[in-house]
Specification:
The complex is a heterodimer of chains A (284) and B (104). With 284 residues, chain A is mainly alpha-helical. Chain A has a single domain (30-284), classed as Cytochrome c-like domain (Cytochrome Bc1 Complex, Chain D, domain 2, Orthogonal Bundle). Chain A is built from ten helices and seven strands. Chain A has helices at residues 3-27, 31-45, 63-72, 79-90, 127-137, 148-159, 174-188, 198-202, 238-248, 259-271; strands at residues 116-118, 123-125, 209-210, 213-214, 227-229, 234-236, 281-283. In chain A, the strands form three sheets. In chain A, strands 6-5-7 form a three-stranded mixed beta sheet. In chain A, helix 7 crosses helix 10 (259-271). The longest helix of chain A has 25 residues, at 3-27. The relative contact order of chain A is 0.17. The model of chain A is unreliable at 6-25 (pLDDT under 50). Chain B is mainly alpha-helical and 104 residues long. In chain B, 76% of the residues lie in helices and 0% in strands. Chain B has four helices and no strands. Chain B is elongated. Classes of the chains: A mainly alpha (284), B mainly alpha (104).
């Protein structure tokens, strides 16, 4: 064996010895480290923005849009939904109970804690799911997850949390960590004929246009939901946003509130921990 | 005479090159092609990764067959099968590839 070959073998062995543990570490979920890297990525990419600016989505990326949005906010298009949601929220069910009875603090100012991981059930519970469960527990039929009443209710609940920082917890439970990891995997997985992942648009290209739309950054993207979208001519929930994203990439959407979507919402909301709730929002 | 010679040459060339003469597709051909496309799309469903274009192309194939155009129906079924297989490939390869895109 030549000296050069011997050195090469030793070098390769050393490289393997050091590389192996880091590869394992990279596969072990570390939500805190992930969130730190995630937020650093966006604040580095857009150094002029303050962290809280990201919750304004495309408006934080484009000066003209920002000016339009400021004018729009004087008579916000989500106002009707907000009023309707407030009224619905306070109206008792047939059994005289209310939505407030289903939630901590009577449902006021709690949006920033959703979704959470329910250790009894071993699954992620979103605000939309919790609202429909509340209805069903009180003998009422569930609402559509994608618009109208659900959007109004979540709009009101988000409004009562405006300014409060996202505070998503991942309990010390391997199932919670698995849900988080699955959400992350969904976020980065390419799907649909266009071969896009969520990250293709919202990590790689925020601020750029895709057709007429300015893409929002993934950081803070959950904070503004539900939203009024001019493109929809109406309100839409988190579920609607996710379903639409899928179909835009020519992927068949899964059902609203299926496990993958709930896990995705859990992951994305955790990534925006510390950023204020700004919902309900308005988008082009 | 020149035309006859040309046609003979063309036929001879096709025979030599092994290109089969185009025969009209039958309903049985369509059913076989459609079943293959459906099977591939079902596999994609199992991976939670169907494409909207596969569904649309399958629907178009069915419509062509209903209208009696089995040539078109077979071609569309084969296209749907190719799309479904691509979605299966995507889902399989993304099981590890998603990590390449992750912010670290």
């Amino acid at each position: 064996m030549s000296a050069r070959r011997a050195i090469s073998l030793v070098t390769a062995a050393l490289a393997l010895a050091f590389a192996a543990p880091s590869a394992i570490a990279a596969d072990t979920p570390n939500p805190m480290a992930d969130a730190k890297a995630f937020q650093r990525y966006f604040t580095t990419k857009f150094p002029k923005l303050k962290p809280e600016d990201f919750v304004n989505g495309p408006y934080s990326m484009n000066e003209d849009l920002y000016k339009q949005w400021q004018e729009k906010e004087q008579f916000p298009p989500y106002e009707f939904a907000l009023e309707a949601g407030k009224e619905m929220f306070g109206t008792p069910f047939k059994n005289d109970k209310t939505y407030g009875d289903c939630f901590p603090n009577q449902g006021i100012g709690i949006r920033q804690n959703y979704p959470y991981f329910d250790e009894k059930e071993g699954k992620v519970i979103t605000l939309e799911l919790a609202l429909n469960r509340c209805r069903e527990a009180n003998g009422e039929p569930p609402f559509s997850y994608v618009k109208d009443e659900m959007a109004s209710l979540t709009a009101y609940m988000a409004f009562t949390s405006r300014g409060k920082p996202f505070d998503i917890k991942i309990p010390d439970d391997p199932r919670a960590l698995q849900a988080y990891q699955k959400g992350k995997e969904y976020f980065y997985t390419r799907r649909g004929q266009l071969n896009f992942s969520c990250a293709t648009c919202h990590v790689q290209e925020p601020g750029r246009r895709i057709r007429a739309e300015v893409l929002a950054p993934a950081l803070g993207i959950m904070n503004a939901l539900p939203i009024y979208r001019s493109e929809w001519s109406g309100m839409g929930t988190t579920s609607r946003r996710l379903v639409t994203c899928n179909s835009q990439t020519r992927a068949v959407p899964i059902n609203p509130q299926d496990e993958e979507y709930r896990d995705l919402e859990y992951y994305l909301s955790y990534m925006s921990n510390g950023l204020p709730i700004s919902g309900p929002g308005a988008r082009p | 005479m020149r035309n006859v010679t040309s046609n003979m040459m063309l036929i001879a060339t096709l025979l030599i090159s092994g290109v089969p003469p185009a025969l009209a597709a039958s309903e049985a051909d369509f059913k076989a092609a459609y079943a293959a496309a459906e099977a591939a799309n079902k596999e994609a469903a199992g991976l939670r990764n169907q494409w909207t274009t596969t569904a649309a192309t399958l629907a178009a194939a069915k419509k062509s067959a209903d209208g009696g155009d089995f040539d078109q129906a077979v071609a569309q079924s084969r296209e749907a099968e190719a799309l479904a297989k691509a979605s299966v490939f995507q889902a399989t390869s993304e099981k590890e590839r998603w990590k390449d895109m992750e912010i670290r």
